[in-house]
Each structure stands twice: as structure tokens, then as C-alpha cells.
Specification:
This protein is of the alpha+beta class. Helices cover 32% and strands 27% of the residues.
Length: 66
């Protein structure tokens, strides 16, 4: 497993976001797991939309989807 974690310089609440790359031992599939913090339901939904669009762009750039 590989991971990178980022913390905002101006926040002191311990929040962070991280990207974790994990390989399934059984299927050999690779997963990108994103952990992010949100204080409200609307922030959580907004973050989900943001990450979904960013991952879709990433998949397009690496040739996973067309």
C-alpha cells in the first residue's frame, strides 16, 4: 500500500485528505482510496462531486476511459 496525506496549513483541527493506492491480493485489482473531511452534509456532497469529477479526469488522462 502506498499513500500520501495532505494537511491544510491554516487548519488546526487535524483534518486532512489522503490518497491511498491499494492492491487486492485476491483479484490483483488496484484501487485509489480518497479520504477527505467535511464538517457539514453539504460540504460532504460537494466534496464527493469534486473527487468524482477529478477521478474521472484522471481516468481519461491515463487512458482508462474514453
Amino acid at each position: 500500500m502506498q499513500l500520501v496525506r495532505f494537511q491544510w496549513v491554516d487548519k488546526t483541527d487535524g483534518s486532512y485528505f489522503e490518497f491511498r493506492i491499494q492492491r487486492d491480493d485476491l483479484t490483483n485489482d488496484i484501487s485509489l482510496i480518497i479520504t477527505d473531511f467535511a464538517e457539514t452534509v453539504s460540504e460532504r456532497e460537494s466534496s464527493k462531486l469534486l473527487w468524482h469529477s477529478q477521478i474521472e479526469k484522471l481516468m481519461h488522462v491515463i487512458g482508462s476511459i474514453f
